[in-house]
Amino acid sequence: MTMKGGYRLSIVTIATLALIICAWSSPALAKKAYLAYGGGPVGGTFNYFANAMASYISKSYDDIEVSSEGSGGSTANLKRLDKGDVDFGIVYSGDAYLGRHGRLPEDGNKYTNVRAISYLYGAPAHLVVKKGAGYKSAMDLAGKRVAIGNAGSGAAAAAERFFRHIGIWDKIKRQNMGYSAAASAFNDGKLDAFWVFVGYPNSSVIEAAARDEIQLLNVHDDAVQTGFYDVYPFYSPVQIPAGTYRGQDGPTKSFQDAAYWCTNNVLSEDLVYRAVSCIYSPEGLNHMVAAKKTASSMTIVDGLKGVAIPVHPGAAKFWQEKGLKVPTPE
């Protein structure tokens, strides 16, 4: 090899080493983080939120890519987060609380690895029946065919708590199915009622109301009369406003849980901090509202509203910078 050839080889080697060093030191060229976000059943609010958040975070950072995945819903996301099968997920505050303390229905496991990031929206119970069918209360559904949500979903878990508490869980003919499938079966006369536990307006209830005259049953009064709120303090009263759905002439009394953006205790503080900073920027919040009007409840002020489990350090850093006091639930 000539001196000239050796000189050229040295230049190439040095240049290659320089590129490697830059890749190690530059965030833009660093190894890309691929994160999975657990959403929910097709047609549910969880999916709208997960899709919108995943796409916006991915668009905002060159070194982070988030993919939204369908799931059974809240309790399924809780368990997958705890195992580290997904990195983000939407979980109802009640499921997160009960799961942490080993109090989920027929499940004594404690899911202690899940951490809260932020409050997303309140999810009211919708108990849909056909107008004129004569049902005045959830109690009237004993012996009737009722869709309660996908197995493993937050909707199904909330349905079991409610119907079991008021004493008709073993009296209704329960069917596990997603919201869109339930609305279709309801319109086809295969169901007497279906239960939806999401923010309003919900596309599946809109779909049902387009084909039949519907009525939303008042489940708040049943809850009050049976002491439901005393046993499950993470639920709170709410009204679904008149006109939310076709034929809904007046407001409907119900109760709600809080849907929470969650992660686990494995994801790094930096990744969570960057993700929450991105979504809760003015541009990020505008993106969320454009994707789903329910996201108008996402605000800095209410960022930790109703939190029932420990907050991830990356999220805690963000909220403290915004002036919020970060609770430390047991």
From TrEMBL:
Against InterPro entries, the record matches this protein to: TRAP_TAXI
Q: What is an example of a Pfam family matching this protein? A: NMT1_3
What NCBIfam families does UniProt report for this protein, alphabetically? TRAP_TAXI
Q: Which PANTHER family match?
A: SLL1037 PROTEIN
Q: What is this protein called?
A: TRAP transporter solute receptor, TAXI family
Q: Provide the species name.
A: Desulfobaculum xiamenense
